[in-house]
Design a protein that fits this description.
The chain has one domain. Helix 4 runs antiparallel to helix 5. It is elongated, with a radius of gyration of 19 Å. The protein is built from 5 helices and no strands. The protein is an all-alpha fold.
Length: about 150
């Protein structure tokens, strides 16, 4: 694997690990996040039980989705990406962006409509890592093709 491809791999892996960490946190957290408390202007203990159940269910669904996407990205990285399948150069960032787009929308929506400051920067970092990983993998593949063309001369 070329140096560019290793850096692309690393970018995608860090993006997947960010999703994995957030997924695990949201999946197993026993109460809402601190920024949720700010958005609602109340502590967890002041939230009525039916709302607690609903909020935790939504957090667990979101966490499970993030975890599933992270695992899919990691499997794609360690099997087809390392084997050099070209279709995966687009698939990994596409899968990551499918979950990052709505996450960015949700975090900016909360930020604009409440005093809370959700972790939107983490979403932006994940998007940027996916974009850089895509560009580097395409560039590395292009360089590989150019080297083959030069060797035929």
């Amino acid at each position: 694997m070329s140096r560019l491809m290793k850096v692309a791999f690393g970018c995608h892996l860090v993006a997947a690990l960010l999703l994995l960490v957030f997924g695990l946190v949201y999946l197993f957290r026993p109460e809402f996040m601190p920024y949720h408390a700010v958005a609602l202007d109340r502590e967890w203990s002041a939230v009525e039980r039916p709302y607690q159940v609903l909020i935790l269910a939504l957090m667990r669904a979101t966490g499970g989705a993030w975890l599933a996407i992270a695992v899919a990205m990691i499997v794609l990285l360690f099997i087809p990406f390392r084997r050099g399948y070209k279709w995966v150069y687009w698939t990994i960032p596409a899968v990551g962006l499918l979950v990052s787009g709505p996450a960015f929308y949700a975090t900016t929506y909360v930020r604009q409509n409440t005093p809370a400051n959700p972790p939107w920067i983490a979403v932006v970092i994940g998007v940027l890592l996916s974009a850089v990983g895509l560009v580097l993998s395409l560039r590395a593949d292009s360089n590989k093709l150019s080297a083959r063309d030069r060797s035929k001369l």
